[in-house]
Each structure stands twice: as C-alpha cells, then as structure tokens.
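Thread: "does anyone have the structure for this chain?"

Original post by V.I.:
We have the sequence but no experimental structure in hand. Need at least a predicted one for the grant figures.
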Amino acid sequence: DFVVATVPVEVAEAMLSTTYSKVSHSSGVEVHRSLGGYRLPADVAAAVDFVAPTTHLPGLSRPSTALGKANNVLVGDNYNSPKNLRTLYQVGSAEGKAANNKQAVTAFLNQGYAAASLQKFWNKFCDGIKCGKGLPKLVGDSTGGSPGMESMLDIETITGIAGNVESEFWGFSGISPDNPENEPFLKWLQQLSSTSDADVPKIFSTSYGEDESSWHQAAAERLNAEFQKAGVRGISLLFASGDNGPNCHGGKFRPNGPASSPWVTAVGGTAPGSSWPNPGADAEKGIGLGSGGFSNYWPMPDWQTDAVAKYLTQRGVPSASDRGFNTSGRAFPDISAQATDFYVYAGVPEPGVAGTSCASPTAAGVFVLLNDLRLEAGQSPLGFLNPLIYRHAEAFNDITTGASRSSCGVWPAKTGWDAATGVGTPNYASLAKVVVALPTGRASAAPPVEATIVV
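Reply from O.Q.:
Generated one for you, tokens below.
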C-alpha cells in the first residue's frame, strides 16, 4: 500500500494540481515544495494518507545519530559486555527455549552487516555463555557493504543479552519520501506488515531517529498507524530516545521522533554507578547524553499520566514556560538501559562506544527473554509494551541520580518516572514474575491465508 514514482516536476504539478517552488536556505540547502498545498480527486484522496514531498519543509538540524566514545579508557572486562549486562539486569542463566521466538534489529543509512565482525565479538565476550543462535537471517535490500558501527552494535548487543534466540538483521536503503535527511522507516514497516505472523520477529530494536518535527504530521501519523498494526500482532518495537540530552533549539526543548510516538517503547540511557555491574540502588545513574521530553504531535496517553504528573511537581524539574515543552504531550523515554562503555566490532575493534543506541538493543534483549518465557508456556508474546511498563513500574530498577543534559537545561532523574530514564532499567528476575502471571492471550499460530492486492 505504498506507491513510489519518480516523475518530472511538471508531471507532479499536473497530478497534484499544484505548483512546486524551489526553496533555498542560506546554508545552501535547496528543496522543491508545493507551498500552496496540493489537491487530489475526492475518490483518490479518500484512499491516500499523504503525498510527499509536498508541503513539509525539512529541518536543517537533527539530533546526533553518530555514536560517541566514552571519555574513560577501560581495561579487561570493565565494558558493558554481555556477561556484565546479564549480571546487572539479573538475567542469570536465562536463555531462549521457545522454538518460535525471534529477535531483530533494523539498519538504515548505509549501515552494513558483517558476519566476521559478529563472530569476533562473540569470540571475545561470549566464552562460557551462548550468544545468539547461529548467524542472523538477513532481510531487506541493504544488508551488505561495510559493517557499520551502529548496525554492528545493535546486532552484537541484542544477541549478547538474549542467548539461544534466532536473530534477524533488517537493513534498508534509501531515504524517507517526506524528508531526504530521514530514514526510510515506512519501507521497513511495509516489509514487516507483509511478513506472516509465523515468520516475523516478535521484538525489533531501532537505534535511529531525528527531530519529531522533521516528519510531516501526515507522514508521522502513517508511521503511528504502522506501529499500532505491529503492536496488535504481538510485536514489540523499541526505539533509542536520542543522544543529545533535552535536544536544545533556541533555548527551548524539542522532542525526538519516532521515540516520541506513544506506540513505541522509547529507551533512554544510564551510566555505571558505584556498584556496577552488581545490581542495586547504586548500580546506575542517568547519563547526560540521553534524550527525553514531551511530544508536540501526540497527546499524553492515559497509561502514563499519573507517573508523569508526579515528576513535574518535583524539585529541580525545569519549567515548561521557560523551556517551551508541552506538558500535555506524550512523555518519553519509557525505560532506560546502559548507554556507555560498550565494545563493538565493526571491521575493527571500537572500544568505549556510547549512546542510547547501546540502550535500545540491551533493553530489547531482556524483553526477548521475557517473551521466551511466555512462548515456551504456550502464551502470547507481549506485543505493545507501554501499558505493562507503567502498570508494573515496581519491576524496574528506579534510577534516582544523574540527569539528561544539554546547553539549555537538564532533565533530572527522580524517584518514579522521569524524563531522563523513564520508569527505570529492566530487572529480568522481577519482570519474569510479572509476565508469566499475565493472561495467556492468543498464542502464536500458523498464519491465515493472505492476499496481496497491487495497485
């Protein structure tokens, strides 16, 4: 249900009953947009969500998606290795048992995969434990090329947390039709939608994003529709919250997307505390780079209103009038995980990697193992996670120290939900008790007969 066509400007103008103008910025960026809007015949418009590029002017800045390096130089097993993360999040000896459990990461923007790099990572860090379950299946039109630090971080981390679970690497070329600076998320979501229930992974981790406003409202709404479709199929979508603190623009806080969507689980960042990697109250603290805040597109869902209201009344939380954030908007992140001191193999060793791109696959790996408990018992996968997270916040490690920081302010970590670390980091042992006690739901079964209509 996505149609892509490349036509001359004059043809696009005739098709859309509009006029395209060249819009230039002093930076040298030029785009063509239909500033006066566009029109479609009524019967066509009834079946179309949006046409792009048309009216939306892309932003000229975006959150940093480049992974950073921690300032400290580590030796030995002082990294956030699979063994240390399993200890920190009380995974213990848990590994996959369910035959139908799968996990996946997504890759965009020329971030490639290399089996040799993944195997080097496993050889270095997985002695005595099982990482992954064989090499990942490759899905999409961009899975080769040079191994990217982002993409290899994601697949190495999720397989390091969730051992003995089949993995998939979903890589896609191109850009968003709405904004040439953005990822082709709809291309991935189209592939997801067309993959049968029996074959689709039940958890995806995505470490990409940008300013929420860089997506036209109509395009963002279509993303939300696809996210909801995944959730009702029992698929969990986790997104990194961003790596630029409160995302400062002109002295005001600006939200990141798609982490700001209420239909995905946004993962913020933490750093090691004094007792790391041993779990406990002093094991973690909020990290400065982790992003959070409030959506300007989506209203706050009922499942988080009470938790967020308590945060906004606490001492040290910035003023909405001073920093321009929307206190009635969807608040993020939902949860967090370690976001610094990771070791990546991407053709060459890359020690000391930092970013919420580390946190999303870490948290995803824990939920993969929680899914496994349910699937092995003949229960349904967890699917859309957020209502469960807020209803059982006590099963997470509450992070009460540290802060998310940028040039125009901070989100301090506080007791309960906060805009730096969400409700906290996952505690597998506590969450395992919660998820096995949930209703059975509809277990995964053979897919129904499907029909494809091409228009």
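V.I.: this helps a lot. Residues 109 and 169 are 14 Å apart (CA to CA).
O.Q.: and Confidence is low (pLDDT under 50) at residues 25-29, 56-66, 445-455.
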